[in-house]
Specification:
With 202 residues, this protein is an all-alpha fold.
């Protein structure tokens, strides 16, 4: 009996070790020696954790379960590349977070339509850009803010989409969902980034 039990325990232990190593590698990828980059990456983890559920929340709020809702998740690989960019380009690399968010906002406006309120997610992008821009680099901040504002104008004026058509009542529900989500993430971003030292310059 004892001889049969030992290999089983050994296999379980090996499996746990593999899972632990995978988790450690994942945590290490999002970790950073720079406090502000680390704080921004923690926000990124929250966003990545919620992205797969966004199509479900849209379907729940509007009653529209279009398969095209999965398009709102296409930005996930680009968000996953943010920690790499932050490590490769210290200081300025963390601004890829709000910039990818801005591009995602434009794309989701094409998918869901201008009346969906998805452009409200540019507000937390603005908050994150303001808090994470390298200290003293106002030119870089100006460029980033110009891109964010350009994304807003593009989303509101260019004749794109929507891929999914919603009724007025559905759009009202979608605007409410996006407004609460954007406000919540903006508050979380401010709370998480406030007071974190910003000493690294580009």
């Amino acid at each position: 009996m004892g001889r049969e039990t030992a290999p089983t325990l050994g296999l379980a232990s090996a499996g746990e070790t593999g899972a632990a190593r995978g988790w450690k590698a994942l945590a290490g990828y999002f970790a950073s020696d720079d406090p502000l980059t680390g704080a921004a990456n923690r926000l990124l983890v929250v966003l990545l954790g919620n992205q797969p559920t966004y199509p479900l929340f849209v379907g729940w709020a509007t009653g529209e379960w279009s398969p095209w809702l999965v398009l709102t998740m296409l930005s996930t690989p680009f968000f996953c590349a943010v920690p790499w960019a932050s490590r490769r380009y210290p200081g300025i690399g963390r601004l890829t977070f709000p910039l990818v968010g801005a591009l995602n906002g434009i794309f989701c406006t094409v998918v869901l339509g201008r009346g969906s309120g998805v452009e409200l997610f540019l507000v937390p992008c603005l908050v994150i850009a303001s808090w994470t821009c390298p200290a003293g680099n106002r030119r870089l901040l100006a460029v980033c803010l110009a891109i964010l504002y350009g994304a807003f104008v593009a989303g509101r004026t260019l004749p794109w989409g929507p891929v999914i058509s919603f009724t007025p009542d559905q759009l009202e529900a979608l605007v409410s969902l996006n407004a609460y989500s954007a406000a919540s993430f903006s508050a979380l971003a401010t709370w998480n980034l406030w007071g974190v030292p910003n000493e690294r310059r580009a």
